[in-house]
Hints:
434 Repressor (Amino-terminal Domain); 4 helices
Amino acid sequence: MKARAELTIALREIIESWEVNQTAAAKRLGLTQPRLNDLLRGRINKFSLDALMMLATKAGLSVRMKIVRPAA
Length: 72
């Protein structure tokens, strides 16, 4: 859930920096405008981690994941 929240925030920031309307941003990401609106309103339960990662890539973001074992 934390990863989805962080991706959503990063996507919202990059989309807002484009300074275009939702229709244009949705087209750029290959989404419908209502689906983009869900993303911008923070409805992360409607997006899988995989879907958010694909959108981040389309938006020009680079996503890295780090998995660590807990200290014994």
